[in-house]
Amino acid sequence: MPIEIPDVVIDRLPVYARALASLDRQGRDVVSSQELGAQLGVTPAQIRKDLSYFGRFGKQGRGYNVKRLLEELHQILGLDRKWRMVVVGVGQLGHAVLSYGGFAPQGFDIVEAFDADASVIGKQIGDLVVKPVAAMREALAGQHIDIGIVATPAAAAQQVIDALVESGVRAILNYAPIAAHVPRHVRVKDIDPVLSLQSMTFYLKSDLAHSPPK
Amino acid sequence: MPIEIPDVVIDRLPVYARALASLDRQGRDVVSSQELGAQLGVTPAQIRKDLSYFGRFGKQGRGYNVKRLLEELHQILGLDRKWRMVVVGVGQLGHAVLSYGGFAPQGFDIVEAFDADASVIGKQIGDLVVKPVAAMREALAGQHIDIGIVATPAAAAQQVIDALVESGVRAILNYAPIAAHVPRHVRVKDIDPVLSLQSMTFYLKSDLAHSPPK
DNA sequence: GTATGTGAACCACTTCACAGCA
DNA sequence: TGCTGTGAAGTGGTTCACATAC
Questions:
Q1: Which of A30, A108, B28, B151 could make an SS bond with B93 (beta carbons 3.0 to 4.6 A apart)?
Q2: Angle at CA B165, nearest 5°, toward B159 and B167?
């Protein structure tokens, strides 16, 4: 029975991978936990501990081989293959998601798009045609979808999520401002810039005595 | 010296506020930590403990007055006033941020937009005209900006952040895929859907149901 | 000499459980 | 009776510090 790996550790691995990819592009062969940590604002011990859950990838006295560690992380995270995603909700936000060029290069392919609004259904975006969300179950019945991206209004989000889960989706990237209810086997990550802003203002507010830097 | 309030607590308050606002719109007068917790996937004790850092807002045997608690949270978080933001980077992402209708209703006003690209500079978006990022310091010199939204390519992000910080910005919403370096008095929240996806794939990779998301 | 890998110590957050009050 | 507020206990994650290896 494998040791339980904390979720926070899994959340940090992609950050490490991203930094390693950057180092690799710069031609760096080796990096220490010290240096990587300084770059990422993480303690060296944190990095070593995190990696130790998965194996021994470093060399004492030397550090980590950048290419090797990057490959290991890709394998650990499942980034060495493609993932199939659908987008639900093609309003302004959904449109931006569909047009975003950052997913495909990382192996995240959007293969279907759905909306409830007749004025959007049938529209072509990139090489996808927006289908009616009412027909989502049938459309997804024959295919395997890994991840659902929810970009609907709040009021529609939960039932869209239910439908995605029933279609076999096991991970959801949720842009809707709701707390999604899902079965235990389904993962949800929320993206909500407003929540991020609203927590930062707490510190802005209490810091008001602070004079701005020169 | 006041008690130190954990960052995680501050991060949850906006979530509570959002749920309370929804209950309020539904006409609910009172809610218990039990019910609020069930709605948000948080334990009742968590909610009570979080709130206890700031005061005693509930009534035993009854619960919390929705309007009252919502108001208190707004005040605690500084959501009872307006915040001035600038956007840097008006590519596809920055454009989407500028067009997003979700900020202003919550009191987050975008008052300037900057880009480095001549083909974007001078363009009008809403009631803003995109200014050259090279002139950002001068443009911001006379005014108070609370929050900077960074939507530039990775390569430009750190120097944009430096310039924002020098202009007195004390909170940054960072859409660029870098680990920002900022002085201790500046808050950063990162938004990176790719990182979110890349951590979820770890769990997708194995069929086993790991621990449920928080 | 230098940097990893890792038990052990430490710390922070969460949950418990119950006194106290409506 | 029902639910809050909160010390105390428990849990989980981080940091320490050092044996180990290059």
A1: B151
A2: 105
Residue from B202, B207, B214 to probe the interface with A (highest A Cβ count within 10 Å):
B202
Residues B114 and B25 in one domain: no
**Burial of residue B124, with CB atoms counted within 10 A of its CB: 0-12 exposed, 13-18 middle, 19 or more buried:** exposed
pTM attached to this predicted model: 0.95
Is residue B121 situated within a structural domain? yes
**Model confidence pLDDT, tens digit, residues B83-133:** 999 999 999 999 999 999 999 999 999 999 999 999 999 999 999 999 999
- The token pair at B80 is 């009872």
Domain range enclosing B68: 7-77
Q: Note whether residue B19 is domain-resident.
A: yes
Task: Using DSSP bridges, classify how beta strands A63-65 and A30-31 pair: parallel, antiparallel or unpaired.
Answer: antiparallel
**Cα→Cα distances B74→A9, A201, B67, Å:** 32, 10, 11
CA of B40 vs chain A CAs: smallest distance (Å)? 6
